[in-house]
Amino acid sequence: MAAVIASRVHELTVQRRPFVHATVVRAQQPTSAVPGDDAVILDDGSIEGFVGGVCAETSVRAAALDTLRDGQTLLLRVLPDGADAFPQAPGALVVVNPCLSGGAIEIFLRPVLPRPLLGVAGTATPIGAAVAELAEFLELEISKPMVYAGASAVVVAGLGRDDEGAIRAALDAGVPLIALVASRTRSVAVLDSLGLTEAERARVRPHAGLDIGARTHREIALSVLAEIIREIRTGGVTPPPVAPAAAPAAAAGEGRNLLPLADISEMSDMEVPRTAVDPVCGMTVVVGADTPHAAVDGVEHWFCCVRCRDSFVAAR
């Protein structure tokens, strides 16, 4: 199973699909999981792999989706009902799961988010080459030439070599930030020649880069990327959503090293899975096709496990 999950982690990373890698680090009998068991939780709440029975999965699924939203790693400790209190600590979350048959389990949740995608037009120029070189050092992912779908930003550094075409391509791809490397005078001339709408023009940064007194090609590249990173980090850039590649069937037997500059902004357009509160035990559950469910007196209810559902229905 470990080899299967490792392969899936690589595949999802290549696909640029957000997910959480969950690994059991400690388990107490009689829980069914053992240290080393792992799984991936996708952005739709589905789980591939094994980190415990259905009751433990309920807690893992809810916590994993939270880590996708904030990008932070988390140590999740799941206790059965009636267990001794365990102190909360930074980076850790303790939950009591009433439907656990016994035993505690600790699971490390590592969200893996796509690195920001950067387009660079004009890599043959000294400044364009310096931007690409520095972007690699900063662990930004460089898109293929003139393929800008899903990019957080595009740097146009052709220095007069079809800058207009690169800007138009980036605008048409929905790129939210286009950094034009040009003097103020030429920037105005380039933008005026394109006949942009007010909304399109607002997405282009003429004479891009923070004012750091840059003179050399590398210093100019640094100023441009500093402005882009500032926008990514402060939420000023939200890249257009890109549909993920189709996920293969889940592995048989299913029931931080946070990436530098992980693009949490890509999660802003994610369709957040629906949640509900189990009316028996009070747990928050993620509603999915396999979530125990019952309709009583015309009201829909979802449960953490079959036992809670059956006891609820029997009491009606």
TrEMBL record:
Transmembrane segments: none
Name this protein carries in UniProt: TRASH domain-containing protein
Species assigned in the record: Paractinoplanes durhamensis
One Pfam family named in its UniProt record: XdhC_CoxI
Gene3D superfamilies, per the entry: NAD(P)-binding Rossmann-like Domain (3.40.50.720)
Domain TRASH: 278-316
